[in-house]
Amino acid sequence: MATVAGTAPAYRFRPFTRDDLPMAARWLRSPEVVRWWGEPGKELALLTADLDEPAMRQWIVECEGRPFAYAQAYPSAAWPQSHLKHLPDGTRMIDAFIGEPAMLGCGHGGAFLRRLAENLLAEGAPAVAIDPDCGNVRARRAYARAGFVEEKMVETEEGCVAVMLFR
């Protein structure tokens, strides 16, 4: 995905590579990311393994040339979960976090996630979904600002999640 033009600021989604692992490791240790993503070493191992997973697309999100966030997308059927079975074939799931604390609370989350979802729809996905923890109010507000609509809250093995859709 290339730079997204339009209203300032511009966001660029560049492929996540092994060279980004040290930066991702630092971001995964930030308190806000630990709170919602979990143990940094485990999460870094998952991001690293996903570099070799064909179904997973991973990006570093840049704002005006400055890396500040991580995002990933994958087909909802790639890792079947009961709370996602109702989604149309080809739906893309996304996960993301802002790793630079100074970029939190500035509107970047909603803005870059809208661009990412629009890009995925333009590539042919019938819908884009995200399933944040029910308690992650900041993220749920950002997703709503991005245009995601909260469909339902469900209990999963990991706890309560809010299934949110962008169409």
Short account of what is shown:
This protein is of the alpha+beta class and 167 residues long. Helix content is 31%, strand content 29%.
Could you describe the 3D structure shown?
The structure is a single chain. The protein has a single domain (11-166), classed as 3-Layer(aba) Sandwich (Aminopeptidase), CATH 3.40.630. Helix content is 31%, strand content 29%. It has helices at 21-28, 31-37, 40-50, 108-122, 137-146, and strands at residues 11-15, 57-63, 66-75, 92-98, 128-130, 149-156, 159-166. The chain has a 7-stranded mixed β-sheet with strand order 1-2-3-4-5-7-6. Strand 2 (57-63) and strand 3 (66-75) form a beta hairpin. The model is unreliable at 1-6 (pLDDT under 50).
List the strand order in the largest sheet.
1-2-3-4-5-7-6
CATH fold annotation = Aminopeptidase
Tertiary shape:
globular
**Residue windows where pLDDT falls under 50 for at least 5 positions:** 1-6
Please report the first level of CATH classification, the CATH class.
Answer: Alpha Beta
Oligomerization status of the protein chains: single chain
CATH architecture assignment name: 3-Layer(aba) Sandwich
Q: Please state the CA-atom Rg, rounded to the nearest Å.
A: 15 Å
Q: What count of structural domains?
A: 1
Q: DSSP strand (E) fraction? A: 25-35%
Helix content: 25-40%
Instruction: Specify the number of helices.
Output: 5
Reading the helices and strands in chain order gives EHHHEEEHEHEE
Q: CATH homologous superfamily - what is it?
A: Gcn5-related N-acetyltransferase (GNAT)
Q: Provide the structure class.
A: alpha+beta
